[in-house]
């Protein structure tokens, strides 16, 4: 059995023993660093057992994690070795499942009967699926703008989908408070267990390659913090020698973290009128934004924003490698082109780009290719 | 390097050394049985290296195969131990990728410049993706009824999509002939390499459990033949003692194999006016139908058909386990209920059901759940 680890605020340093999600200073808390050694095992949960804050409920696992690291020839032109970490083959087809599984393992042990989340996309589907799997009720709060079509892939798992009229931006904080009062455990974007679950991405990468750069699509900041914590713990445990450079990648049309970073601000401000095709990373006021800013400054890591045109181009290039991803997942590749051309990422580097979610999730955004009409008797000509 | 294995017709016994796809008698040929031993390795391609008819192009792999075997509580009521083989987490989100990868490895070595397939669904996406990955042109022949929306997930990979006007049923055979003439390697539903690729499902299952029954959604028959060949080769190699009972599962609205089986016919007939929600297995004249019939008869295996109502119910139950599958994938679970209740599958049995493809592929068929509207100031009440 795991002993109960402490929670620490990465901004003000306050410590907590209870199961809080945010520090009194307003920032997200995180588990103290773990040290350990790897074991033999089929799943990332077993191999890196020492590094989880809660015993993973392996009997209820859906096989999240242990995703392929795919070699790509797309780095060739830039002279870099590119690897694509394909998170689209998780049980609900996005990286969210890693964090959801770990948070759900906690919720079950803590005897919650209901869980919730604030999301309209990947996280909503993930929490719905695992809640159902774990036998818990799920309350999914979505914005009033979300169409029925998009919600089908969420409600199919049997969750209570609640379309909230009013300021959607408030919901992240409101839901945590209400959840505490009502006994509903809200697993929002940067929930501490969720962040821990994402460490598995770093662990699996380190098992296969020693990257110089890792490109991370960044919205709430939960994924970035998780991967960073994973590499840091590997280094502290003596399992890797040097940290890779982690690159926070945002869409230009919604880049509050990159903007604050460039302007040298310590705290970020809400990004007004966000507009980007990369819907899955379009959070105008990321709850882990300040924590990510701090990491970027501490380690000298870059923040890069890319435009919709570049994103669409990169999505097409990735499809040419056989990997159809949602626009948010293509931002890493778009950033690589920018960083490679400007010399920030030098030739010969080993680069990993995180592909966060399946292209099937945002099919309506995809430009269809040309379709040729052909009478069957002329098939031979059409095939030439 | 692999030596060149022979191809054999499972119906008339004729043997071929060249790369034919169909026997002169009209039936599909298959590779002679392989024997071997398993090795240590990360991928199914490495661990079962002895069993493939062609050297897999591992550098070009997208990480197909090695899918999770998920424990399910859905067998509880029937007193069976149920495992779900989740093929929805393959690179294009269906089992087709296993066969496509192996066939593509052959096409590359045989120096083809173009490949093709006849499909509107999972196989079309899979062949498009891998052709692009392997640097080959792809010709995807779809029926004139296929909508643009559905083809987006295919054309995104850069394939030439050709909408053929005329008798779609003829295309399977026409394409093989034309392909031979034009140097386009057609990887249709029961291409011999494709069938070999599906053996991996049997191999991976056998690594984890010793099943008494395996439930297999059956359309063209390629998947069924592949899994059967896999278990047979494991037995011949002394790696398992007994074969599981393989259950061919079809949708009632398009069940040519089950019908011929029940009527005691040696050859199947075209199923007129097929109509089922399980689109992915709605082939009215399966090219491997007679070969499947022969396997069922030889080993005394059952063929079970299930209705659309049962399929939809099973799809909902699987979603309740956190696994959202396309209707075709739910047929196995629907068949289990039928076979369990009627006592054909006895209590205490270990059963594996194959989940062939992602629910995101047929999202428009899914009945959405209830969505509650809630003003933000009443959120507390809505959450109770």
UniProtKB/TrEMBL annotation, chains A, B:
The keyword Nucleus does not apply. Keywords: Lyase, Pyridoxal phosphate. GO terms for biological process: isoleucine biosynthetic process; L-serine catabolic process; L-threonine catabolic process; threonine biosynthetic process. GO terms for molecular function: L-serine ammonia-lyase activity; threonine deaminase activity; threonine synthase activity. Pfam families: PALP. The modification N6-(pyridoxal phosphate)lysine is found at residue 96. CDD domains: Thr-synth_1 (cd01563). Its cofactor is pyridoxal 5'-phosphate. Its EC number is 4.2.3.1. Residues 61-357 form the Tryptophan synthase beta chain-like PALP domain. Belongs to the threonine synthase family. This is Threonine synthase. The gene is thrC.
């Amino acid at each position: 059995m795991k002993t109960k680890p402490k929670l620490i605020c990465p901004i003000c340093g306050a410590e907590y023993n209870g199961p809080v999600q945010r520090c009194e200073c307003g920032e997200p808390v995180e588990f103290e660093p773990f040290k350990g050694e790897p074991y033999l095992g089929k799943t990332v949960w077993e191999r890196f057992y020492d590094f989880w804050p809660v015993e993973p409920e392996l009997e209820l696992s859906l096989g999240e994690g242990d995703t392929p690291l795919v070699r790509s020839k797309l780095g060739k032109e830039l002279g870099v070795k590119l690897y694509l970490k394909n998170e689209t083959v998780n049980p609900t087809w996005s990286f969210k499942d890693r964090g959801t599984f770990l948070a759900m393992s906690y919720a079950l042990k803590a005897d919650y009967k209901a869980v919730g989340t604030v999301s309209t996309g990947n996280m909503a589907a993930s929490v719905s699926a695992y809640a159902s799997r774990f036998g818990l009720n799920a309350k999914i709060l979505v914005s009033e703008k979300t169409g029925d079509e998009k919600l089908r892939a969420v409600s199919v798992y049997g969750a209570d989908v609640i379309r909230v009229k009013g300021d959607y931006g408030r919901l992240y904080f409101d839901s945590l408070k209400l959840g505490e009062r009502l006994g509903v455990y809200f697993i929002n974007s940067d929930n501490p267990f969720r962040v821990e679950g994402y460490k598995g991405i770093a662990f699996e990468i380190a098992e296969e390659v020693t990257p110089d750069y890792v490109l991370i699509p960044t919205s709430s900041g939960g994924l970035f913090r998780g991967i960073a914590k994973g590499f840091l713990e590997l280094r502290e445990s003596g399992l890797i020698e040097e940290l890779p450079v982690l690159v926070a990648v945002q869409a230009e049309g919604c880049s509050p973290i990159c903007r604050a970073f460039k302007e040298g601000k310590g705290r970020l401000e809400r990004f007004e009128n966000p507009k980007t095709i990369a819907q899955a990373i379009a959070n105008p006021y990321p709850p882990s934004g300040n924590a990510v800013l701090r990491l970027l400054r501490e380690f000298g890591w870059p923040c890069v924003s890319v435009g919709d045109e570049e994103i669409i181009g990169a999505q097409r290039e990735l499809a040419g490698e056989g990997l159809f991803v949602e626009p948010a997942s293509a931002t890493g590749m778009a950033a690589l082109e920018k960083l490679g051309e400007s010399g920030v990422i030098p030739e010969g580097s080993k680069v990993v780009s995180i592909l966060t979610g399946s292209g099937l999730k945002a099919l309506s955004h995809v430009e269809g290719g040309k379709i040729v009409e052909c009478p069957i008797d002329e098939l031979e000509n059409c095939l030439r």
